């Protein structure tokens, strides 16, 4: 079938990706992509390297301002900023906006690592004007989260939030980065997933070590989040992860 024979954009994208390309087209496209990837890493390193110790807040872009978790994320970010930590979010709406808003109201550093997504991603107005970074590549953006965060606060979210959570857990579990705090906020939201991890991955399938369950904590309040961070950093100096 020809590209114009498909009815919807998703089918057209798949067909275009599967279309046979010449070696010269492949080589040219891939070579230029390398330069684009390099530029995103360089710009990210230069901007983030000057910011100082930060905590990343992950969560859904779809959470509304009246939602209890939006309000809680705003309180958490406010207290984090007052405790001396900068706040990094994905730069978009929902929980990300709440995180940047709380940091902004607390007079702290408010960083947004933005990426353009269909229908839901646009940068929020609470990011410091000189700390609003834009990315085309998810994997470059994730490196910036991990390299420059000394703690991870994970609010309720969808597939993207779960991806960010398990990325952090995997890197800590494999000792690729230090054992920084991972704090899951919302016992009601997270308990089902953690029960499944314990019952299936740990006890039934033995694909996860019981000790790996100690890599994160589940809390319900902003004070608990700050308490976990403060207790951890009484023992360690703040520094980039790698």
From TrEMBL:
<dbReference type="InterPro" id="IPR005269">
    <property type="entry name" value="LOG"/>
</dbReference>
<dbReference type="InterPro" id="IPR031100">
    <property type="entry name" value="LOG_fam"/>
</dbReference>
<dbReference type="GO" id="GO:0005829">
    <property type="term" value="C:cytosol"/>
</dbReference>
<dbReference type="InterPro" id="IPR052341">
    <property type="entry name" value="LOG_family_nucleotidases"/>
</dbReference>
<comment type="similarity">
    <text>Belongs to the LOG family.</text>
</comment>
<dbReference type="GO" id="GO:0008714">
    <property type="term" value="F:AMP nucleosidase activity"/>
</dbReference>
<keyword id="KW-0378">Hydrolase</keyword>
<protein>
    <recommendedName>
        <fullName>Cytokinin riboside 5'-monophosphate phosphoribohydrolase</fullName>
        <ecNumber>3.2.2.n1</ecNumber>
    </recommendedName>
</protein>
<dbReference type="Pfam" id="PF03641">
    <property type="entry name" value="Lysine_decarbox"/>
</dbReference>
<keyword id="KW-0203">Cytokinin biosynthesis</keyword>
<dbReference type="GO" id="GO:0009691">
    <property type="term" value="P:cytokinin biosynthetic process"/>
</dbReference>
């Amino acid at each position: 079938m020809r590209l114009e024979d498909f009815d919807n954009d998703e089918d057209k994208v798949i067909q275009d990706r599967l279309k046979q390309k010449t070696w010269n087209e492949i080589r040219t496209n891939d070579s230029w992509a390398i330069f684009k990837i390099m530029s995103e890493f360089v710009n990210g390193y230069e901007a983030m390297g000057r910011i100082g110790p930060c905590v990343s807040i992950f969560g859904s872009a779809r959470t509304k301002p009246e939602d209890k978790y939006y309000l809680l994320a705003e309180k958490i970010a406010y207290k984090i900023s007052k405790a001396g930590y900068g706040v990094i979010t994905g730069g978009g709406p929902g929980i990300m906006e709440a995180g940047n808003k709380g940091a902004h109201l607390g007079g702290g550093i408010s960083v947004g690592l933005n990426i353009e997504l269909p229908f839901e991603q646009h940068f929020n107005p609470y990011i410091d004007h000189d700390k609003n970074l834009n990315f085309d590549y998810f994997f470059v953006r994730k490196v910036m989260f991990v390299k420059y965060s000394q703690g991870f606060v994970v609010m309720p979210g969808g597939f993207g939030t779960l991806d960010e959570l398990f990325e952090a857990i995997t890197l800590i579990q494999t000792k690729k980065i230090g054992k920084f705090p991972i704090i899951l906020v919302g016992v009601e939201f997270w308990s089902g997933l953690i029960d499944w991890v314990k019952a299936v991955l740990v006890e039934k399938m033995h694909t996860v070590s019981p000790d790996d369950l100690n890599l994160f904590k589940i809390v319900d309040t902003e004070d608990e989040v700050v308490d976990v961070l403060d207790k951890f950093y009484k023992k360690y100096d703040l520094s980039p992860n790698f």
